[in-house]
User: Fold this.
Amino acid sequence: MKTVNVMIVGVGGQGSLLASKLLGKVLVDAGYDVKVSEVHGMSQRGGSVVTYVRFGDKVASPIIDLGESDFILSFEKLEAARYAEYLSPNGKIIVNTQEIDPMPVIVGKAVYPSHVLNELESKDVTVDAVDALSLAEQAGTAKAVNVVLLGRLARSLPAVPKEAWLEAIRSSVKPKFVEVNLRAFDLGYTLD
Assistant:
């Protein structure tokens, strides 16, 4: 199997590290060689957070270079645009349609761009835009955006059965949050 490259990008506090942990666990449990590398940046202050996840028969390095990512799982639209150059020609960006204002917008020095996803699509980027925040709220908590997006990604990774994802959630999430995360995953997974 060729190595598959997944980047998880978002803003500090959105749960990208839990998402990478769940993704890594489900892939290791499925028998793949998995390498994960986390770049936290200013994660505690709303800054960009990036995680590289690479898996296959044998993976030498955890780093993904420009143009190599098969999937970018983006928790916010500007983060999708920021890392789009890492996407491979046949790759896909799965992006939450939520907008989180970066510091220049918050302090009035800039305006949030209004056509981020349209610009990506105009560059022949495959974009799967998901209102993950609404689905997470439907599942029971806005904090489950990360798991909604993992459910969406899971549909694109058919080598791992759905039940394996559900088991990874059951064994990795605190017991009081398991049911809401299972619902969130299913909403992302079954969304048409």
Remarks:
- The longest strand covers residues 87-96.
